[in-house]
Design brief:
The chain is mainly β. The protein has no helices and 11 strands. A hairpin with a 6-residue loop joins β4 and β5. The model has no long low-confidence stretch (mean pLDDT about 95).
Length: about 120
């Protein structure tokens, strides 16, 4: 079992930045591939960024060059640095451990990009 708690969401103007954090507890964090997903109203949940146990990363095309995922195994935490934010980045952002189908999810944190 893994418990995930996201933080760092909020309201930001277009072009601004936010850093999301996801703190894990309850199991060995370092054995899980981790991901950030997002879900906007009326849309399906989509993968934003992922990082493997060996810190290999991949990103959705829509965020490449703007978002950076990283992990700190000593702190059991995964981060999502979001720069050059756009209104279309507005969504609830979820942290995931272990994959979309069988993995664990956090409760989500709202990110709103608006002037």
């Amino acid at each position: 079992q893994v418990q995930l708690v996201e933080s760092g969401g909020g309201l930001v103007q277009p072009g601004g930045s936010l850093r999301l954090s996801c703190a894990a507890s309850g199991s060995s964090f370092s054995i899980y591939n981790m991901g950030w997903y997002r879900q906007a109203p009326g849309l399906q949940r989509e993968l934003v960024a992922a990082i493997t146990i060996r810190s290999i990363t991949n990103y959705a095309d829509s965020v490449k060059g703007r978002f950076t995922i990283s992990r700190d195994n000593a702190k059991n935490t995964v981060y999502l640095q979001m720069n050059s934010l756009k209104p279309e980045d507005t969504a609830v952002y979820y942290c995931n451990a272990g994959g979309r189908i069988l993995g664990y999810w956090g409760q989500g944190t709202q990110v709103t990009v608006s002037s």
